[in-house]
Structures are given as C-alpha cells and as structure tokens.
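ok here's Amidohydrolase family protein, seq below lol
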Amino acid sequence: MPALLMPTTLMPTTLITGGLVVDAEQEPHAADVLADGGRIAAVSAPGRLSPREADAVVDAAGRLIMPGLIDAHAHVDGLVFDPDVQLALLRQGVTSTICGQDGVGFAPGDGRYAAEYFAAIDGGDPRRLRGADAARRASGPAPDGIGAQLAGYDGRTAVNVALLVPAGTVRHEVLGRASRAPDAAELAAMRRLVETGLAEGAVGLSTGLDYVPGIFADTAELTELARPLAAAGAAYVSHMRGGYEANSAAGIAEIAEIAAGSGARVHVSHFHAAADTVLGLLGELAAAGVDASFDAYPYTRGCSLLSMPFLPPELTVLPAAALIPRLADPAERARLRRDWFPELDAYASVGPRWRELMTFAHIAAPEYAWAHGLTFAEATRRAGAADEIAFGLDVLVASRLETSIVMAVPDARPPAELARIFAHPGHLGGSDGIFIGAHPHPRARGAFARYLRETVRELRAWSWQDAAAHLSARTAERFGLGERGLIREGWIADLALVDPDGVADTADYDAPLGLARGIDDVFVAGVPVLAGGRLTGATPGAGIRRQPVRRGIHRGTRSERN
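and the structure came out like this:
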C-alpha cells in the first residue's frame, strides 16, 4: 500500500502555475489556476495570480492542466474505499466514476443479492457503504436506497461516485428470483423504486440484459421502468441483450423501441463491435430521432463473470447455496452437457475456440490460485481434468460461483479501428474496469492512460481538447454531474496535471496490475489527493447527486466539426 502523506481532508487554497490549461472548450494555452473552497476561484494569464493568496503552490511546468477525468462505466461500487483502487484511478487522472452498472447494485434493498452475484465484479461487502461508524457498519448490510448509498461515499474516499438505479436489483426487490413477467401491481412497485432512486440523486437507470435477473425482463417492462427518466433528465443505460459484436443490431433495435416508448435519452454500455457496425447502428438511432451516447474502452477483449456464458440463466438466478450442490451432482452435469453446453459455442460466436480465448481473471478458491492468467485449455491440461467443461464446473463449485474471465475475440481490432469508434461525438470514456482478481483485465488500471497515450499522442485521432471532451466534459453533461468537466471560474476544482509526452498505461494482458504513469498530481474539490504519484490520504470525494448543467459541448469539439 502506498505511503499516506496527508491524513486529513482539508479545503486548501492551491495555486497551480506554469502549465497549459485545456478542456473541451479551450485548446491548450498558458494559464495559472487558483482553487479555493473546493471551486476554481480564478483562471488567469501566467504570473497575474499572487502566490501569497495560496496555501500551496504547485508547479505544473511542462504539463497540461486538465479537468478531472470521468469514468462513465466503472465497477468500484464497493471498492472505491480501497487505497489501491483509488491510486489506480487517480494515476489515470480519474476523479469521478459512474457506478451501479449492468443492472446490478447494492441499492435499493439490503445489497445481499449484488454482494453474492456480482462479488467478482463490484466487490462483495455492502456494509462498507454504511458510513464512518464502524459499529454501525458491522450491524447489518448496505443502506436501503440510492440516497443512503451516495451518503456512504461522502468524505470517505478520494474519488467521487455517481450512481445509476440498477434495474435488475429493482426487479429482484419486487419479484425475487422469479423469471416471470411482473403483474400490474408489481410493475408499479418497480417503477416507484426507480422514481425514488432518481429523486435521491441517481443519474439514470442501468440494465444488464445478459445477467440475471435482467435477462428475464422484456421490452415492455424496461420501457415502463424507463418512463420516469425523461422528466428527471436522466439516461437509460443499457448492457444490451444478446452478446454485442455481430449480434449488436438486435440490442440496438430494442434500445430504440424503449427510447420511443419512454421518451428517455439512451446510453449504450461498452459498445464493442466492428467500427462499421458500431457507427452504422449509431446512425440508425440518430435517424430514428433517438438521443444516444455510448462508452467504449481502448481494448478488444472483454471481461465478465464465468457463470454468465457458462451456465443457463435458470441456474445462475439461484442462490449459491442451492446451485452449488446441483453443479457438483453428476446427473446435473450430464444434463448440462446434453442440453446447455452445445449452446456455449453459439453464444461465444467462436465455436470451440472459447477454450483458448477465455482466461481466468479471478477465482475465489485458494486451491485454484495457480490458474489465474491461464486459458481454459491451459488450466485443464495442467489440472489433468477430463475436459474444459468439467474443469470449469469444478472451479465454479470451489469458488462458490465467484469467478471471472477475460474474453478475447478471434480477430482483435487494431487501434486505428478503435479510434474510428472513439471519434464519434457520442462516445464517452469508460473503462468497464473490474479491479477484483489476481489477473484482471488491464482496462481497470490502464484505460484512461491508454486513451491519452494511444488515441491522442500516437494515433493523433484526438487532440488534447478532444480528449478533455470525450473523457470529462461530455460525461458530466450527459449524466448531470454538476459543474464538472470544464476549467472555468466557479466550477468544481477536480483537476489532473498530465505530462503530455509521458502519460502511458503500463498494464497489459500479461501483466495487468501495472499503474499508469505520467499523471502524478490530482485534485478533487481543490484538495490534493495525489501528490508526486502517491496518495495524500485526503478523502474529499463525494456521492454525486444528479445536477444537470447545460453547456452545449455534446455537438463536438472544433477538430471534430472541421
């Protein structure tokens, strides 16, 4: 764990001198920035602000002064309190995250469902969200609502957290683990939970339509849950149904239907497919009058729960205590081999190659620690198991389903093709970062630094102004994160100092735990949270309540319009 340099959260007055200010509305230009009381007090020509006005002066010579970056799709719901997670985010310049993704979260409700089902993704201890009182945290599970969860972040982390209302969790609160459609009264109860979450500050509604119980929700149910979003100015955010890539058209068609029926604007989570497919489908949404944005990360491999592709939904919806004995039963294994596993090849769209393309990221069973980073085929050979199916079922039983995998695609898209996707003005920066595991996907620790290294410096597909738009300002505007994302007087002083020649990701698929370099000083609400590349120990982060601020930057930066 890094050394802590500053044990308390203060609101200092800080003067940043000698750098180049850049944001979505300004090309890089020399200016000094004064932060005071959590806000940007002044942005002035170099040398005009007196150091005597500041408690501290930070020399930004040779660096860009950028707005803090915002991760539009993060999985740190229960992990953002960990210093190592905070350090990994801040070393990429990320000061705010949007959580409650993929339809599963700790609220509303007691958090137990998410803690079990999404333990390998979001973390499994909702009690950490109960606030600073240790005795209270030990007394029970997570808070009951979005408002209570947001309050659990206030002043307890170095990074800000906004929340989506997770539709799968809403469904579970009303229907439990049932796969049927809700009746009218149940659907009304589900809608009330969405309305309450929005009233408490949620920035939208998320779905995870390949996960349970979201996979059981039909389009009519989702449309009804999305109806309150338009009036609230919030977004419908969807992990689409059907596996993305070549299957994306069906998912986009459902999103268009939900948008038309609800009036909500939409956001497509981790939209990954061939560039022509992505851009063509976004064009279809625009032609249909759908206000759409999306996030996509600068990698071609994915990461998720092993149980999601490996088991049928009617099993994964069961509690672990009921499912584990079934997976250990030879008769059940024989049934799965006959009735389910032939479908895995079709789901993966790669045929039997899934055995070489799926790599173990996290296995919550010490006896299988040796398998981290190995493909199914490699691990099966090393274990001497009968085949990959037997080995996968053994791992799920031993880990009580807490296993995740990194999933490659047969033909990795080159960076230039990804840059074509990122050039779309509806693109927002998102890592889909999952921090749990001995061999996780490198996107958690590298995505935002990789955007800056690869898309800006190496490919020159973005200018620095474009990067500030895609990775900060547009996300703040799209999700109503208040006065964040631009460097202007009176706005929140979330700032990152970026070495334009040195910023880079170090995490890769072989060594995924490396921290980014080239961003050593970061401020949240004007408070230094990263200094010299090390955590200061300050915790000025907060739960961000939805607060729309219109600034009209979604139309594209100058370089995108020209």
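fwiw The longest helix spans residues 184-199. kinda neat tbh
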